Amino acid sequence: MINKIKELADNFFEDVVSIRRHIHKNPELSFKEHETSAYIKSVLTSWEIAFTEDIADTGIVVLLKGNNPDLRTIALRADFDALPIIEENDVDYCSVNKGVMHACGHDAHTASLLGVIKILDALKQEWEGSVKFIFQPAEEMLPGGAQQMIKEGVLENPKVNKIIGQHVFPDLEVGKVGFRPGKYMASTDELHITIIGKGGHAALPEKYNSPLLAVAKLITELDEAFKKEKDRPCVLAIGFIEGLGSTNVIPEQVKIKGTLRAMDEGFRMLAHQQMLTIANTIAQGYGLEIDFDIRKGYPCLVNDVELTEKSISFAKEYMGVDNVIDLSVRMTAEDFSYYSHEVPSCFYRLGTANVSKGITHGLHTSRFNIDEEALRAGMGLMAYLAIKN
């Protein structure tokens, strides 16, 4: 079976590269992926593959049935939205949509999953059960497309027993993959905070109540509080401050924005209360108002231990023992996490770097790219995991 899959991956490789480049060249932002969705459907139609459309607006689902299709259903997921980044790569397939770029590899995820469909469709007399392919929009922006697709029944009819997701990883050389059983990625919450004081002329302190002082206190106390959490991985970071004052102007209000990341859902809720308590105390102490808006995002991503350990074993069979590595916990977030709280899940990483070719730039950067040889391994391994799991 491994040899058959690898031969098919080789046969379909050029087509999958072409698909990836088309998607990369025509990126669309979260919740706006109408042309990308239409392109995916056009590819499926040309292959005579049936699909269900308009799930979470632009989402698409394909169901392939093997022998004994009611035996079990495993789902495979790819996302297809892009990021608001100006691409600086010098390639023929560079983004033509200025200010929008596939800087997180979702083009590769989608192309790989389409390749998996080709492989498993060609082999459908040689595997059992059903495979559901989920093409998901809007991974990059809250509330995310996964949550909406779940609400609209993507894990039902037929009921999904397990789900697998794959994500490109520029920290790994092409030809390698990485796994981590158990908790793998953090939850994410956005913090939108407005501190409202009384503005005025900087030279007349008796006539104003500067929100800037309260902001300094708030940022410092939040930072100190979460640095003490050494036994529970978490990150609280402020990345935006806007005061709009001047050398002699005290602003009426200051806005700050940040993020909270946590690896434990119980601690996450406690952290929300802790932040609000700190803010209320500072507001009272400075005699002003603090509007502390916590916009709850994705939960932490938990890989099912049994499914992931089996997948590691199968990956070693397909890729070779030396090409499967153990991953560390990441404080980044992924809306695949919603699936992981519904059914046994495995979210793993596909190596895409090639130092000799200079393909080393990180995710969410203007020069991110992949060694497209990763697509050969990506579609082949995912097809093998779908059959074996």
What does this structure look like?
There is one protein chain. This protein is of the alpha/beta class and 389 residues long. The protein is 35% helix and 26% strand. It has nine helices and 16 strands. The protein has an eight-stranded mixed beta sheet with strand order 1-2-4-3-5-16-6-15, with helices on both faces. Strands 10-12-8-13 form a four-stranded antiparallel beta sheet, covered by helices on one side. It has a two-stranded antiparallel ribbon with strand order 7-14. Strand 3, helix 3 and strand 4 form a beta-alpha-beta unit. Helix 1 crosses helix 9, helix 3 crosses helix 9 and helix 7 crosses helix 9. The longest helix is centred in the first third of the chain and has 24 residues. The two termini are 14 Å apart.
